[in-house]
Amino acid sequence: MKLKKILAAGVTAVLMLSFAACGDSNTPAGNQDDNASALSGTITMAGSTSMEKVANALAESFMEKNSGVTVSAEFVGSSAGIESLTGGSVQIGNASRALTESEKGKGAVENVIAIDGIAVITDKANTVEDLSKEQLTKIYTGEIKNWSEVGGSNAAIVVVGREAGSGTRGAFEEILEIEDACAYANELDSTGAVMAKVASTPGAIGYVSLDVLDDTVKAVKLGGVEATPEKIIAGEYFLSRPFVMATMGPIEEQSELVQAWFDYIKSDEGKQVIEQVGLILPQ
């Protein structure tokens, strides 16, 4: 008799759990984040060091919304990133410049996520506040070698730039039409290295992504125009370039996870992340 009571209680408990489970399955869809719970896997990307800040910010925000997703990024330079993409080792290649015809010929598709300005920087003690496009060109080609030639003190100009293959270097030289004509004293392999070198070297000049500027260096005006998002949008500041997240083939042909990544970038929340790191949304 006692055993029968125990068995009956067990059956009752099982039935109650079954009903509860059925009740959970009928929870209105509006109370669940179906997309977030469905997404899982890894997104791999590689490329521009200038895009590190925005790529990491977007990745962190996207992973917060999708706990089953990992976004893995390497920052090895634009050209190396596109090579990784076309070689099949990553799903997204980050480039801080427009894609070349050769890269497009290999199947890479240019997806512009933001517009960035390139700031020209000097050490903080430099007294030069403004450079014309012609002066900047002549400094980087070695025609102007002393700051006194552009209204500054009698000090040698130390020309600092990025390494070959850098998207920032490619865009900078293309805009000034000085490809393969620069007289660099230092060619450095990251945005941070350029910032540190210019900050610590009297007479140095360099170029970096606008969104990484801080108070360790001074940004000079170009043609009387400050490097600001507002001036870039207005078309008044001439040193600007696209931030590209390239894919092999169009976005709609990518995996569900990669498509969700680009949907997030285009969403209001994604756009807010891009603007918060100091970049401009593409028009």
Description:
The protein is an alpha/beta fold and 283 residues long. The chain folds into 2 domains: 43-115 and 242-276, 3-Layer(aba) Sandwich (D-Maltodextrin-Binding Protein, domain 2), CATH 3.40.190.10; 116-240, D-Maltodextrin-Binding Protein, domain 2 (3-Layer(aba) Sandwich). 39% of the residues lie in helices and 21% in strands. It is built from 11 helices and 12 strands. The protein has helices spanning 2-25, 34-38, 52-65, 78-86, 101-105, 133-141, 167-176, 191-200, 229-233, 256-266, 268-276; strands spanning 41-47, 69-75, 92-95, 108-109, 112-122, 130-131, 158-162, 186-188, 204-209, 218-219, 221-222, 240-248. Strands 1, 2, 3, 4, 5, 7, 8, 9, 10 and 12 form a 10-stranded mixed β-sheet that branches. Strands 6-11 form a two-stranded parallel ribbon. Strand 7, helix 7 (167-176) and strand 8 form a beta-alpha-beta unit. Residues 1-36 have low confidence and may be disordered.
